[in-house]
Design a protein that fits this description.
The complex is a heterodimer.
Chain A (H helix, E strand, L loop, with lengths): L4 E12 L9 E13 L4 E5 L6 H8 L7 E6 L2 E2 L5 H8 L2 E4 L13 H11 L5 H11 L3 H4 L8 H13 L5 E5 L7 H18 L2 E5 L3 H7 L2 E6 L2 E7 H6 L4 H9 L39 H5 L5 E4 L2 E3 L17
Parallel strand pairs in A: 3-8, 3-9, 6-7, 7-8
Antiparallel strand pairs in A: 1-2, 1-4, 4-5, 9-10, 10-12, 11-12
Helix pairs in contact in A: 3-6, 4-6, 6-7
Chain B lengths: L14 E11 L4 E12 L4 E5 L6 H9 L7 E10 L2 E2 L5 H7 L4 E4 L3 H4 L6 H12 L4 H14 L5 H4 L9 H13 L5 E5 L7 H18 L2 E6 L2 H7 L2 E6 L2 E7 H6 L4 H9 L49 E4 L2 E3 L4 H8 L3 H6 L1
Parallel strand pairs in B: 3-8, 3-9, 6-7, 7-8
Antiparallel strand pairs in B: 1-2, 1-4, 4-5, 9-10, 10-12, 11-12
Classes of the chains: A alpha/beta, B alpha/beta.
The complex binds adenosine-5'-diphosphate (ADP) (2 copies), iron/sulfur cluster (2 copies) and magnesium ion (2 copies).
One adenosine-5'-diphosphate (ADP) binds next to strand 2 and helix 1 of chain B.
């Protein structure tokens, strides 16, 4: 085990109450048997459509939810074994950046107090450190003396980032950190995250539904579909030569500001099945042009096709990989 | 006051918006939301209004449809001619008849326009019966045709479905079916795919493009996404801080961007221009507040091409090429600087 972040067969099943219409208890396998390693200083991009389990996986890593299977190890520590003060101390090492910067900040506190609070929680309150953090994320005194609602989305996200790095964590989980921002502001925040990652030697899990953003920031990318990782590989390799039919569909669907898609139909078929009772075998088989008998009976394991590029598809070898779908 | 009454002419426009200016007045605050907005929509054309949040896309649509709030909003100049008839001079009573009949509308969140307690079949047929004297049976038949048209699988069984029983993508299809039920001349779609996943977005955009081809409707597609524009729009209008700063045929505008803001947007897109882990080209600063009138170029404080002349009152929009108009004084310098941009090269 060499990863800074290691997930071993991690799963999370939510149990839903029986619905009024009848039927018994239902389960959502929000995250299903995920194995992952992220090296120190590496950025892993996590992509997939809404409901595929990205945020649940983030919460499992952040120890905000307990897995129903498997374990999460960060820098050699399995936090599920810790309690009380030991857990609180350990938590300093992993922090989160959220999608909605405005909503994730206390509306009744000024920026200065918001950043100071997390330091205070650990007995490290220091106005000098707040100033230092503000400078790191590009906020001035003007911003520090304001409430979240008086600041723009980009400025609020800078506060969120200052909080996340305040305690010198080794690992940051960023869950859709630029999804609520306009493109011109998005570039500022992506650059900021990129700079801090180098300066502070951060290990980063960067979650986004936006593939072009992920193609820019991530060293490696994992693609999720209905709770499972279906493909993972180095960013260039995955975007240039996607091996899973779902990854291909996703890449083709991305609107690109080039003439590529003009008047060509997107190769998207079918609808996302319900996560409550997903298709047997390969979850993607109901939408896959290559599906065969095996696909309904056997769950495809994630396996190397072009190491370290891994894919969970029975037919990865036979599916021609000649399509040219560069996003990166 | 500077107007931009001039804009690319379109033969026989379905909609012709001229010199539209709009203010919102709260107790002590005025917002200059639109400033001399002018554009036309031709027969069977998809034109895109593109820009970042707050630039005035939705209020442009609301003004055209007569849906501005009763209090506080004031149109200070301009006209919006639907086949020659000025919608801004039309009574609310008449507008109620025009909306849903001659102009169809769809919004980002279908749930805000769908009634949760009625079936989709019922809602579509009610819309039809509001505008047409037809029997319930005929309206229901038309509703079914419409669900087929927007490619809802097994449409007959979906007539009885309630909105919450449908996925987001299906709901947006139902909205489109409802908007098109009375054969409108114009469809205004305000961020219709923004809340959808990319695969579903691709399906809905395909549908809009196909419907334009098959029934020849004209569309104003409002979006913040240049990728969406590139995929489906014939012409595009770039908006910033309440003004249309550049407009033209999509191919021309991407191949020859001629405004500092358009250039800034195209450069800051990740995944196309910059190589991995390289710094992206940022647009510094943030959008201006609209609480005062800005004489010069609204983008000047953030523009890398700006010079002193940009702060003086702006001249009329200039035509760069046929149908391609810009309000940028340094358009040639912008084009020149953008010639090695990856997006520009892809369109050249
Ligand atoms: N607390 C919960 N209770 C029940 N189901 C949940 C809960 N949280 C998430 N889910 C379900 O788990 C799945 C994954 O959700 P999520 O992790 O939020 O996806 P993503 O972030 O990729 O959009 C979805 O089907 C969602 O409805
Ligand atoms: N009812 C209103 N009262 C006051 N200001 C408004 C109102 N509606 C919109 N505005 C302002 O008008 C400007 C344009 O808004 P809008 O058209 O919604 O932008 P977008 O391009 O995101 O659709 C914004 O500055 C917004 O704050
Ligand atoms: S395992 Fe079968 S159904 Fe799944 S992606 Fe591969 S070919 Fe398609
Ligand atoms: S007019 Fe001047 S400030 Fe405005 S976009 Fe052109 S160069 Fe930039
Ligand atoms: Mg999420
Ligand atoms: Mg809007």
């Amino acid at each position: 085990m060499t990863g800074y972040l290691v997930l071993e067969n991690v799963g999370k099943t939510y149990t839903l109450k029986p619905s009024k219409i009848g039927g018994g208890v239902r389960h959502v396998h929000a995250v299903d048997g995920v194995n992952l390693e992220v090296a120190r200083g590496e950025t892993l991009g996590l992509v997939g459509e809404s409901g595929c389990g990205k945020s649940t996986l983030a919460k499992l890593i952040m120890h905000l939810e307990a897995p129903t299977g498997g374990r999460v190890v960060i820098d050699g520590v399995d936090h599920s074994r810790l309690r009380g003060p030991a857990l609180k101390q350990a938590r300093r090492n992993f922090q989160m950046i959220f999608q909605d910067p405005q909503a994730s900040l206390n509306p009744r506190m000024k920026a200065r107090a918001i950043i100071g609070e997390i330091l205070g929680n650990y007995g490290k309150a220091s106005s000098q450190r707040v100033d230092e953090l503000a400078a790191l994320v590009g906020l001035s005194d003007f911003h520090l003396d304001r409430y979240p609602h008086q600041l723009s989305g980009g400025q609020c996200q800078r506060i969120g980032i200052a909080r996340a790095i305040a305690l010198n964590p080794g690992l940051i989980i960023a869950d859709e950190p630029v999804s609520a921002l306009d493109v011109s502001i998005q570039a500022q925040i992506l650059n900021l995250i990129g700079r801090l990652r180098e300066q502070l030697d951060l290990t980063l899990v960067f979650i986004s539904h936006d593939l072009s953003v992920v193609s820019h920031v991530a060293d490696r990318v994992a693609v999720m579909y209905l709770g499972r990782i279906v493909e993972i590989g180095r960013t260039e390799s995955l975007f240039r030569n996607p091996r899973h039919p779902y990854t291909r569909m996703l890449l083709e669907a991305v609107p690109k500001p080039t003439p590529a898609k003009r008047h060509a139909r997107a190769a998207v078929s079918g609808e996302l099945p319900s996560p409550i009772d997903p298709p047997s075998g390969c979850h993607f088989r109901t939408r896959c042009a290559f599906a065969g008998d095996d696909c309904a009976s056997k769950v495809p394991e994630l396996r190397p096709v072009d190491s370290p590029h891994m894919v969970a598809c029975h037919k990865a070898e036979t599916i021609a990989s000649s399509l040219n779908m560069n996003v990166a | 006051m500077i107007d931009m009454t001039s804009h690319p002419p379109v033969a026989d426009p379905v909609l012709d918006v001229n010199n539209l200016s709009l203010e919102f007045a709260d107790r002590d605050k005025v917002t200059y939301a639109l400033d001399a907005v002018s554009f036309s929509v031709g027969e069977g054309e998809i034109v895109s209004l593109v820009g970042e949040s707050g630039c005035g896309k939705s209020v442009t649509a609301m003004t055209i449809m007569g849906l501005l709030p009763k209090h506080g909003a004031r149109v200070t100049s301009g006209s919006a001619l639907l086949r020659g008839r000025d919608l801004l001079q039309t009574s609310e009573r008449e507008m109620r008849r025009i909306r849903g009949d001659r102009i169809g509308m769809i919004f980002q969140d279908p749930m805000t326009s769908l009634n949760p307690v009625h079936t989709v079949g019922m809602q579509i047929s009610e819309t039809i019966r509001k505008h047409r004297r037809v029997s319930r049976g005929a309206a229901e038949k038309r509703a079914l045709e419409m669900l087929d048209l927007v490619r809802i699988p097994d449409a007959a069984s979906r007539l009885g479905a309630y909105p919450h029983e449908l996925s987001g993508g299906m709901r947006q299809r139902v909205m489109i079916a409802m908007a098109l039920a009375c054969d409108p001349e114009l469809l205004i779609a305000d961020e219709p795919t923004t809340a959808l996943d990319v695969t579903v977005q691709a399906q809905v955009l395909d549908l809009i493009a196909d419907l334009r081809r098959d029934i020849g409707m004209s569309v104003i597609l409002i979006t913040h996404d240049l990728g969406v524009v590139a995929g489906v729009a014939d012409r595009m209008m770039v908006m910033y801080a309440g003004r249309i700063v550049e407009q033209g045929p999509t191919e021309k505008l991407f191949a020859d961007p001629a405004h500092g803001y358009t250039a800034g947007l195209m450069r800051s897109l990740p995944g196309v221009n910059a190589r991995m882990r390289d710094e992206l080209r940022e647009i510094p600063g943030s959008v201006p507040r609209l609480d005062r009138k800005i004489e010069g170029c609204v983008f000047a404080p953030r523009c890398e091409f700006s010079s002193e002349v940009c702060l003086a009152p702006l001249p009329q929009a200039q035509e760069r090429a046929q149908g391609h108009w810009t309000r940028c004084i340094h358009a040639s310098a912008v084009c020149e600087a953008m010639s090695d941009n990856d997006i520009v090269r892809a369109w050249a």
